[in-house]
Specification:
The complex is a heterodimer of chains A (113) and B (113).
Chain A lengths: L2 E4 L3 E5 L4 E8 L5 E7 L6 E7 L4 E4 L2 E6 L4 E6 L8 E8 L8 E2 L3 E6 L1
Parallel strand pairs in A: 2-11
Antiparallel strand pairs in A: 1-3, 3-8, 4-5, 4-9, 6-7, 7-8, 9-10, 9-11
Chain B lengths: L3 E4 L2 E4 L5 E7 L5 E8 L3 E10 L2 E4 L7 E2 L9 E3 L8 E8 L8 E2 L3 E5 L1
Parallel strand pairs in B: 2-11
Antiparallel strand pairs in B: 1-3, 3-8, 4-5, 4-9, 5-6, 7-8, 9-10, 9-11
The chains are: A mainly beta (113), B mainly beta (113).
C-alpha cells in the first residue's frame, strides 16, 4: 500500500542549531513534494515545493532536498529560533488522474531557547 | 488580504441535525478542496472542485456533500452528522488546477454529540 512517513512525531532542538526533518515514502512516484507549517489550531501554511527533477530548494533559512532514489525528502531549518516551533507536514502529489494530495502526519518541532 | 475564510470556527451539534460549513476565497482561485484532520491520521481530502459546477470525491467523501455554484464559495454540507464526523475541518484553495501551494482556511472544529 502507499505510505508516507515523517521521521518522528516530535523533535526538540536547541536554539541556533539546524533542525532536520525527514519525509519518507514508499510505493509512490511523486511529481513534486511540498512542505507546510501548521501552528496549533490553525490551517497549514505553504512553505516550499520541490519537483522530481530538482535536488534542492532554498528559501531564507529553509532548505529542502528531494531524493527520488531514496524516496526521501529532508527539510532543514538553519539557525533555528523558538518562533520556528510548530508542526511541519510533508505532502506528495502524484499528478496522476484525480489522486488527492497525500499528507504525512507531521513532525512537531520545539526549538528551546 | 488574500485569504480563505471558513465559518463557523467552532460548532457543536447533535447527531442527525443537518449543518453547513461555509468556505470563501478572495483570490479568484479555480481549485478548492475540503480536508479533515484527525489525531494520528493526518489530513485527508474529502471533496475537491476544479472549477464552478465541477466537484469530485477525495479520499473520505462518505457522509459529506459539496457544491460549487460560484467560483469563490465551496460549502461543505453534512446532511445527517454522526459522531465519527467529529473532526477539525479545513478548506483550501489554489490558483492552478493542481494541488500546488494550497492556501488553507483557519479551520472549523466540529463536535457531533
Amino acid at each position: 500500500s502507499q505510505k508516507i512517513e515523517q521521521n518522528s512525531e516530535a523533535l526538540n532542538i536547541q536554539e541556533g542549531k539546524t533542525a532536520t526533518l525527514t519525509c519518507n515514502y514508499t510505493n509512490y512516484s511523486p511529481a513534486y513534494l511540498q512542505w507546510y507549517r501548521q501552528d496549533p489550531g490553525r490551517g497549514p501554511v505553504f512553505l516550499l515545493l520541490i519537483r522530481e527533477n530538482e535536488k534542492e530548494k532554498r528559501k531564507e533559512r529553509l532548505k529542502v532536498t528531494f531524493d527520488t532514489t531514496l524516496k526521501q525528502s529532508l527539510f532543514h531549518i538553519t539557525a533555528s529560533q523558538p518562533a520556528d516551533s510548530a508542526t511541519y507536514l510533508c505532502a506528495l502529489d502524484l499528478l496522476s488522474g484525480n489522486t488527492p494530495l497525500v499528507f504525512g502526519k507531521g513532525t512537531r518541532l520545539s526549538v528551546i531557547a | 488580504e488574500a485569504q480563505v475564510t471558513q465559518n463557523p470556527r467552532y460548532l457543536i451539534t447533535v447527531t442527525g441535525k443537518k449543518l453547513t460549513v461555509t468556505c470563501s476565497q478572495n483570490m479568484n482561485h479555480e481549485y478548492m478542496s475540503w480536508y479533515r484532520q484527525d489525531p494520528g491520521l493526518g489530513l485527508r481530502q474529502i471533496y475537491y472542485s476544479m472549477n464552478v459546477e465541477v466537484t469530485d470525491k477525495g479520499d473520505v467523501p462518505e457522509g459529506y456533500k459539496v457544491s460549487r455554484k460560484e467560483k469563490r464559495n465551496f460549502p461543505l454540507i453534512l446532511e445527517s452528522p454522526s459522531p465519527n464526523q467529529t473532526s477539525l475541518y479545513f478548506c483550501a484553495s489554489t490558483r492552478t488546477g493542481t494541488n500546488e501551494k494550497l492556501f488553507f482556511g483557519s479551520g472549523t472544529q466540529l463536535s457531533v454529540l
